[in-house]
Write the structure tokens for this entry.
Amino acid sequence: MRKNIVAGNWKMNTTLQDGQALISEIVNMVQDEVTGSQVEVVVCPPFPFLSAIGKQLPEGGRFHLGAQNCHQKETGAFTGEVSAKMLQSVGAEYVILGHSERRQYFREDDELLSQKLKAALAAGLKPIFCVGESLETREADETFNFISKQLKDGLFHLSNEEFDQVVIAYEPIWAIGTGKTATSAQAQEVHAFIREQIARAYDAEAADNTTILYGGSANAQNARELFSQPDVDGGLIGGASLKSRDFTEIIKSF
């Protein structure tokens, strides 16, 4: 079913000790200040910290552990890589796939991501699948065509049962780390389009049940307005997830 989710992507930041201090602050703040809200919180630290950070998350509550990537194979001679099964074995429930930084810097394409999706689902993980356009694509009025292709080539090969486990994150690449943010109207327009494409590929029920997050420089100041849009179900948060007060305020925006 459709959920409100705030996911913190720590990227390649913090040491173990700093990360442990950060998550301790976040957990305490959220437990003290967030009441009644049904929002789930997914924390995605770097691979080496997953187990330690996971042990600090309260069991059976709103907090969940996520990873930032996985390999498409279950095992093998792939030095430096991490499989979905490994992530699941240390307590991860979610995994981010197709983040714009993975697409740009590591040349991950939709064919590869479709394999990673299958691997994550087979291991029992819930993928957070990212789509989004560059500034050049937006200025060429190709946003919808571009995102439609990402969805079709990377995601819509899944069965209905598999697709039910997927969360989608819309990342306007031009708004990541730039200080720019899509307006709430721009975010809503693309989220509504994504939901429409899901309905066409699957059905209206699948579209209504899919959680779609906004992932472009959301912060404590703009989160409430973004999350108030009917098709924006939360955020995939980067820089602000590294500041306990800011991240807590974003969670409180619901």
The longest helix spans residues 16-33. The mean pLDDT is 95. DSSP finds twelve helices and eight strands in the chain. The longest strand covers residues 126-131.
